[in-house]
Write a structure and sequence with these properties.
The structure holds two protein chains of two kinds. By secondary structure, chain A is of the alpha+beta class. Chain A contains six helices and twelve strands. Chain B is globular. Classes of the chains: A alpha+beta, B mainly alpha.
């Protein structure tokens, strides 16, 4: 009964959220050794100041890199927009710098835990980036932490387009951190190895124009309506520690509550 | 009161281990810490570990593993029920035999968990039940000794 209610309604969302407070001490203790190692490393006062400055600069750099990421896409878009004489859209999304605190120990999924949660304004469905590209989306929010489903997870799907010519496709995770697969690409589609894939924004969840991957292989089986395309994710899914949570202007608590549950 | 506090602490330890950061290539080595602790509590402090224990522990595990609330509750209820059934016999078994029983208990716990998920959710990726139950069984003697020492050392 409880399961049915939790799956089909959002009534128990607050119970789940508040249980996060109970789990918080356990999470903190589990991550304590890492904290101690970090503190020992920063023991000297003068050194710690330098490290603080360094951290701030890194965070600043990350924000700037996020803006740079979109330049390649904007160049292509600019040509189209000039032709159409329409106004360019706002590209200055707000972001929040966050850190990966742990990786979900469940071997069946690719999920990471972030150190920002509901108290920082994080919401389910929120896109997450690293310095190189799209990492995934938030699928669960607790008060002081949140879980992110990476784009390489086999349950994850993202609408993409080829940056060069706008050919649209659906990129699904394969369960391997270095491979995405493109679904429903017509055999006549102009797509080649080395093409940049960016988010198309058509799903309504991810913002448009962020790097998703680079096409790594294209197979064209004779007589098949669709070709087999694989891509390598742009984001460093297995090594990025500092990530960005994107707050889009106008993006609410994205699609229906029950949608994200079916993703798992 | 002391038993309740110690039981809560044992469960806290299990949740800490459940969340312990581990390199991806060693994921398969993770035992079912909370299930092992529930088995221990059901054996050692049956007054505390009743079926009702499955409710808070199950809910917390569901939040921890991002599953619909109630999924673990069913599996833990069965686990506690089975341990209570086998309790007297388990005391008479030697440690190797206990490990074999723990293997079966953890495997059945995981099978119930899997079946519940298959019933309620659209996409379920099965865990490696045999490996996980094996690792849990191998950890049982150590975990049991640790918790037993903990229960004995702390003064009333």
């Amino acid at each position: 009964m409880i399961m049915w209610v939790d799956i089909n309604t959002s009534w128990l969302q607050s119970v789940r959220y508040h249980l996060g407070y109970v789990l918080k001490p356990g999470h903190d203790v589990a991550l304590f050794p890492r904290l101690v190692v970090g503190l020992l490393g920063e023991s000297a006062d003068s050194r710690s100041k330098l490290l603080d400055d360094n951290k701030q600069l890194k965070a600043r750099n990350l924000v700037l890199q996020q803006r740079v990421q979109r330049l390649a896409y904007l160049e292509a878009e600019n040509i189209t927009l000039r032709e159409l004489l329409s106004a360019s859209e706002q590209v200055d999304d707000k972001v929040l710098v966050t850190s990966v605190t742990s990786i979900d120990p469940d071997p069946r999924t690719y999920q990471v835990l972030l150190d920002k949660g509901g108290e920082d304004g994080v919401f389910i469905g929120q896109p997450v980036l690293d310095a190189k590209g799209l990492m995934g989306q938030v699928i669960d929010v607790l008060p002081n932490s949140s879980k992110v489903l990476l784009i390489a997870d086999s349950n994850h799907v993202i609408p993409v387009q080829v940056n060069r010519n706008g050919v649209r496709a659906i990129a699904v995770g394969t369960g391997s951190l270095d491979t995405l697969e493109l679904l429903y690409v017509a055999s006549t589609a102009d797509i080649n190895v080395g093409d940049y894939l960016v988010s198309s924004g058509l799903g309504g969840r991810y913002p448009q124009g962020y790097p998703v991957g680079i096409v790594s292989s294209v197979e064209r089986p004779a007589g098949e309506p669709f070709i087999k395309v694989q891509a390598r994710p742009s984001a460093r899914l297995d090594s990025s520690r500092h990530l960005l949570l994107v707050f889009r202007a106008g993006a609410g608590r994205v699609p229906p509550d029950n949608l994200w549950r079916k993703v798992r | 009161m002391r038993l309740i506090v110690m039981s809560v602490f044992a469960l806290f330890l299990a949740f800490v281990c459940e969340h312990w950061p581990i390199a991806p290539k060693f994921y398969w080595l993770l035992p079912q810490w909370v299930a092992l602790t529930v088995i221990f509590l059901s054996l050692t402090v049956p007054i505390v570990s009743r079926i009702a224990l499955a409710i808070p522990v199950g809910l917390l595990m569901d939040v921890e593993h991002l599953l619909p609330l109630g999924t673990h509750m069913i599996a833990f209820s069965l686990l506690i029920y089975l341990v209570h059934l086998l309790r007297n016999r388990l005391y008479m078994l030697n440690i190797v035999q206990q490990m074999m029983v723990v293997f079966l208990l953890v495997a059945s716990y995981q099978i119930v968990l899997l079946l519940t998920q298959m019933l309620m959710m659209e996409y379920v990726i099965p865990n490696n039940i045999v490996v996980s139950a094996c690792v849990s069984a191998l950890m049982w003697p150590w975990w049991r000794v640790l918790l037993k020492t903990l229960f004995q050392r702390v003064p009333a």
